[in-house]
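<instruction>
Derive structure tokens from the sequence

<record> Sequence and structure tokens follow
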Amino acid sequence: MGYKPRQLGHINIYVRNAERSREWYEDLLGLHTYGLRPGRAAFMSADMGNSHDIALVEVGEDAPGPQKGQVGLNHMAWYMESLDDLKELYYRIKDRDIEIESVSDHGHAVGIYIRDPDGNGIEVSYEMPASEWGHKEGQYLIGSTARGRLPGPWDEEPTRVR
């Protein structure tokens, strides 16, 4: 099928200050900056083989932030390589006093939901290999897999959604 996309290429989000946002994404997620146009945009990637996974486009300090419940991007998700990597990132989030909005056990994955300095939604997540999902064939995945298989320090988080 030639008309079917191979994968999602990148996400492009608006930020108030591209340089400041670049520093935040680099510090928290370890993203690599492939290009920075001060006052305009930053192009960053988790995979050095991609030109960019995310483009941070500067719109100015007075720009309003995203509004919950309105049309637009809810959040972007960054998958971690392992559950241990997600645990390490959880502690980085805590060390930087970044508010955790919620933690959700999806059965096949666990996601930690935060916001960047401009209010853009971010999920950092670990997803089990498909062979371990255990969902019922023909059913949508969420709600049809056993929860509690991905324990971690987030289990005591007051925002935990089970």
In short: Residues 83-95 form the longest helix (13 residues). Helices lie at 18-29, 83-95.
